[in-house]
Amino acid sequence: MLRYIARRLLQVIPxxxxxxxxxxxxxxxxxGDPAEFLAEVRYxxxxxxxxxxxxxxxxxxxxxxxxxxxxxxxxxxxxxFGTSWTEGKPVMDLIMQRLPASAELFFATFAVSISxxxxxxxxxxxxxxxxxxxxxxxxxxxGISIPSFWLGLILIWIFxxxxxxxxxxxxxxxxxxxxxxxxxxxxxxxxKTRFVRSCLLEVLSQDYIVTARxxxxxxxxVVLRHALRNALIPIITYFSLSIHHLIIGSIMxxxxxSWPGLGSLLVESVFERDFPVVQALVFLSxxxxxxxxxxxxxxxxxxxxxxxxxx
Amino acid sequence: MNxxxxxxxxxxxxxxxxxxxAPLIAGNPYKTDLKDRLEPPSLKHPFGTDxxxxxxxxxxxxxxxxxxxxxxxxxxxxxxxxxxxGAVSGYFGGIIDDVIGRIIDVFLAIPELVFxxxxxxxxxxxxxxxxxNVILAVVITNWVSYAxxxxxxxxxxxxxxxxLCAKAxxxxxxxxxxxxxxxxxxxxxxVLATLNMGNVIMTIASLGFLGLGxxxxxxxxxxxxxxxxxxxxxxxxxxxxxxxxxxxxxxGFNLLGEGLRDVLERxxxxx
Lengths: 311, 271
What we know:
The structure holds 2 protein chains of 2 kinds.
Chain A: H1 2-28, H2 34-41, H3 49-59, H4 65-77, H5 91-126, H6 131-145, H7 148-162, H8 174-204, H9 207-214, H10 219-241, H11 243-256, H12 262-271, H13 275-303, H14 305-310
Chain B: H1 3-25, H2 56-92, H3 94-109, H4 112-127, H5 131-157, H6 161-168, H7 173-184, H8 186-210, H9 221-228, H10 237-270
Helix pairs in contact in B: 1-2, 1-10, 2-3, 2-5, 2-8, 2-10, 3-5, 4-5, 5-8, 6-7, 8-9, 8-10, 9-10
């Protein structure tokens, strides 16, 4: 087991390295002179040649790419993402400020969409090719096709503008969370429902299910006790790996509902050209994915010994 | 014929025809009329008018042109790029495959839209505002899925008998790649390309909504919703109609893609 974990850890290193290199090079795509930009935006001074030169020296923009990259990387490994260009605060502080709001929305959405996806997936597997199954399929196709930002605005129009039931935007109590979570879950659970259905159907076609049925077990017991348990492993993996969809969804939903999370921080930073923040967010989203992947793989190996001894 | 395919194809054709006929059936999407601002839908303006008094019906139809054309450009570029990279990587193997495999892993790790937003932001500052920024940024993230799928197919194809036979009679590496391997991997790639068209349309609309996409006055659905959302209390049609068209076109490609996949899976099952 330890050897397996060690091997997976080693495999992750090149990817993490690549992610860091890619996020760092974003700054290099920055046109013109970052030192000049800093002088104007952050220090609000006329960018005379000597001031620009001083900032360049101070920020290390005059050093070769590789030196700058290694300097950045060694800081990042210590949790220091540099200073925001526009706010002058450490990037990490800005991120930590926004993290709780994002996390709240994230966990609420995850919980809601998992419950719905499991429920609808099980129902459509049991009633395969019946009316309920077709309705679920249409529902999941709509979920991936309807833009979440549009759905959010339509919900705002119905529940805030017309019915005056819920606040249209802002951050605070439970009532502020309902619309964002609803919007976000709708698109997120769509694909998951189909996946739960196909996993369950695959398990249901196996021999031990036939045995269980032959023993005379009730259909309910067969599905919930025998089939679902075995289908759960791929389902859990799939849910964890769909973290990308969650991050992408968070950007759109947070912007629509003016939710003060990391998604809206990214968009604001792009508009304000605050590139250290953009860099950090790109990097962290990549790292998050790699680590979730790693943890899922290790857990999987714990549950299923075939993987440990596989290759 | 598969029902999903037919419905999907029907929706796509409808969108294409509306886009192509926009100059004939819709008016000028740029003509402003400040006397006619924020008019609700009527016979004269079927979808109402926007905050500058432009006819929303014309703008939505011309928007179909923009979205489909840009999405097609992005898909074609990233498909050719991704398929070639994936095929070369899978076919030649060795160190080329290791390096390309790692690069694919890195690109897969960063969520597409996060990377797109960062890139468009930088390109806008670097090269000024233009539609090419959006195309370039989306291509940079989009080729990866094609490369990954092609690589997987090629890896399994290259051990098949007919490729080994071709090798045995002395066919060259590139000849085998172009004549045997690529034509045989078309099926899954077509499915991916169809589903991907839907994704790309959604990405363009999302960037447009964030204010980072195709810029006004060019009519684009996401950007129209972005402008319309400020008038959601008084003029909800500004949000409603462009979004309906985004949803319909994405749905069309998803239906067609799922249908094609069903058909192909059944075919390979029979084989």
